[in-house]
Amino acid sequence: MSAEGRLIAGRYRLETQIGSGAMGVVWRAVDERLHRTVAVKQLLLQPGYTPEETEEARQRSMREGRIAARLQHQNAIVVFDVAEDEGQPVLVMEYLPSQSLATVISEQGVLPPQQVARIGAQVAGALAAAHMAGIVHRDLKPGNILLGDNGMAKITDFGISRAIGDVSVTKSGILAGTPAYLAPEVALGRDPAPASDVFSLGSTLYAAIEGEPPFGVDENAISLLHRVARGQVEPPRQAGPMTAALMQLLRPDPVDRPTMAQARGLLQAVADGRPVAAPAPTKWAPPPTTVGRPEQAPANPPTQVGAVAPASAAPERKPRQALLWAMAIMIAVLVGILVASFVSSGEPGNQGQPQPSGPAPAPAPASTAPATTTAASTTATSTSTTAPTSSTAKQPSKSDIEGVVKDYYSLVPNNLDRAWSMLGPSLQAQGKDSYERFWKRIDKVDIVFGPQFTGGDKVVAVLRFTTKDGSTSTERHVLGMVMNASGQPLINTDQLQGR
């Protein structure tokens, strides 16, 4: 389409170009048959396309029309017709005098939380209807939300959406969607699902309040995808009453997110001034992948501090359970010693003599020594060398435990051998090779807050990680501590939480 006034499909007269993108050009036009204003979008082919690629692009545009035509909702742009112009498909859509949310943010800056909640509730309503129709949008972002002059918000551009049961025409290996607004599971290479749209809606509304999406912006798409895949969202600073709703939409594990219908209810509650409960803490342990392409999990998946041991690893006991088991064993040992002492005290010539500390003597023949006496003596002698260590080990103080955590983070990433020795069995079970591969990507770690011992076996620390490429992320870690046989605290588990 090179000039205004051109007639398309014998009825649509072009007036003014109102938008353009990677996939097409949009014009305001007049339907001369029905005498109404419409928007006309024509496919924009990139130079150098092969005939096969051209045909694929045509199919994609036709599919967009079919998918969008299924959805009839007041907050979704309606597709009226799919026509052709010089052999190329064009979409004829509802025209809404509007600006995109991206334009509004760019020109006006961030928006008030309750206004964003009203926009989000409208968009969530349309997307809930889309999900009911078997449609996943897959590219939700500020540029695809139109804000009308009357306060109406509408979702548009289902150009890369997927309808369940529709043939896929996206090229293999191409990651669909805008990286900054993708859900973590999509960045890891999984197929988009309704829960992915929920996360993208949360990212879009986050950007409207904070000025940028939760994982920031980066010209290096690969670096940005790595941050998205980690799923570590920095809680918003300006969201006020929207904070709890946003953090529910932005839960890293798709299973934990609300449905789109539930998201609409949360956002409408904020818009109406009603309180929204904060989400419960959750852990996100993404499977080992290369960003954008799933791979078979290695034997020892990457040991990122905060990751959960894989199912194939040795069974993990919680630190509190481990301490209880250790105490039970100590009590059993002491009882064994007392029983052995009582038994031996009845034999002539043994009163007041210490029990031997060397290897247990060979048991007497069954005809001369009862089996129970032999078992008790063997237990006593075999444990006499370890019992004093366990029973006399000094309990570490609060400052001792916090000092271990400080020392650990002063060692990584430069002295990994020493740092590795300060980890408990649960984290070490994940493999040193994977542990080292993770830390080779990190340039330095700064302790922003803490470490603070909170009682039991927990230590809280807020850390700032700087990667080799210069990007930073701030994370809140809850460390589970356990003692070794000599009473030295070790970092045994690490739960990553939002700040």
Automatic annotation (TrEMBL):
Binding annotation for ATP: 41
| Keywords of the record | ATP-binding, Kinase, Membrane, Nucleotide-binding, Serine/threonine-protein kinase, Transferase, Transmembrane, Transmembrane helix
Chain intervals with Low complexity compositional bias:
365-393
Q: Where is this region: Disordered?
A: 277-314, 345-399
TM region positions: 322-343
Which SMART domains does the entry link to?
S_TKc
From which domain of life does this come? Bacteria
Biased amino acid composition, Polar residues = 345-355
**Which PROSITE patterns does this entry report, sorted A to Z?**
PROTEIN_KINASE_ATP (PS00107), PROTEIN_KINASE_DOM (PS50011), PROTEIN_KINASE_ST (PS00108)
- EC id: 2.7.11.1
Q: Which residues form the Protein kinase domain?
A: 12-267
SUPFAM superfamilies recorded: Protein kinase-like (PK-like)
Keyword DNA repair found: no
* Protein name, entry field: non-specific serine/threonine protein kinase
Q: Which organism is it from?
A: Saccharopolyspora taberi
